[in-house]
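Thread title: Can someone regenerate the structure for this chain?

I was given the following input by a collaborator and told the matching structure tokens would be attached. They weren't. Posting the sequence so someone can regenerate them.
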Amino acid sequence: MFNKILIANRGEIALRIIRACKEMGIKTVVVYSKADEDSLPVRLADQAVCIGPAPATQSYLLIERIISVAEICDVDAIHPGYGFLAENPHFAEICESCGVTFIGPTAQQMRAMGDKAVARETMKKAGVPVTPGSNGVVDTEDKALEVAYKLKYPVIVKASAGGGGRGMREAHNDPSLIQAFHAAKTEAERAFGNGEVYLEKFIVNPKHIEVQILGDNYGNVVHLGERDCSMQRRHQKLLEESPSPSLSPLLRKKMGDAAVKAAKAVGYRGAGTVEFLLGPGGEFYFMEMNTRVQVEHTVSEMVSGIDIIKAQIRIAAGEKLPWTQKQISLSGHAIECRINAENPHMNFAPCPGRISFYAPPGGFGVRVDSHVYCGYQIPPHYDSMISKLIVHAPTRQEAIAACKRALDEYLIEGIPTTIPFEQYLLETKEFKEGNYDTGLIERLMKGGAFERQKPKGK
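Best answer:
Regenerated them for you:
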């Protein structure tokens, strides 16, 4: 097992990794920007090293500085968390060449699944259902139009190296396709340094279902059930739950088996997520694979009882998975709400600033993953998530009741948050019945139902 791990990240995920390491008897080093010098990860890690000013391009994305800290502090491994360099195959290669273990998949596996167009072809060969689309990258307007005619509108243009909803554009006719083609390429080039795009048939109002998998270095792969991540706005998730209220036992097994098959197709090691689109008729299609731990890994932890961060570390240290699929037992229902520093009454505008008062909820079955505290200054340079509320209960109805109570108990003053919107979502008929899809939030916002709610001042 490792003696010391460097955490190349910030915020709640850095703190989450520190906690897992402490429980495993592993020392931690955290790198940070000047904007994060007063953060909890910096205070709680065994060592903390500043690597630059606030902008991520001058700190968290500088591979050479992170590697220098790793060498100076004599670490055995680097955990990238999520975001930043977590899915950067070059970073994984540099780590390995310097004799430092990268806690995650190999660079080759990352490239195979990180390039969305290549991943589609890999899944086709493995027998995993994929959304009808182009054969590889589409590099010209004419080619895009040709593919769209075959697929029939609507279609969606996607960045090959995309993620987080960036580099994605819908098209419903020729003019909108041409516009979407260039817009997606431009955004992808700026966000990922790779402007390649491909086309898929656009599935109208699907459900977004993802399956958590774990694979070791010996060909063993298991899944920890599925998460329903359909509650999203502009491709950004706001609320997740496990299990999905939409899946029958048979469909659940089919999707779990498909996810394991997808991971085995590339010999995957570590924690990963296989994402599917579920159509209204029960048909499902592979969308992409995230080769890292995800924000919403917590709901899978709650229903499986497995610490995914510790599993990542053990796998990277060369240990075999201690369970077979039959030994994985899923119980109860979990819901996660992402608490962001955004004003939902102002089109979710980011609202960095100082938290003047902070009191998280508690009680049976309530978990809060957060790096903030009373007096914490939320910097404007990074994502706006400040806290994750996760509840677990024997049934979905009990989990919803616990989530409502916990949200009402949250006290965050000094900045607007998304808490009022989360409270609103839990009260909608669609969520209560489990009858929602990826387009629900946009429809609710257009209808103005939330805007007619009286703000609760949280």
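The CA atoms of residues 426 and 432 lie 7 Å apart.
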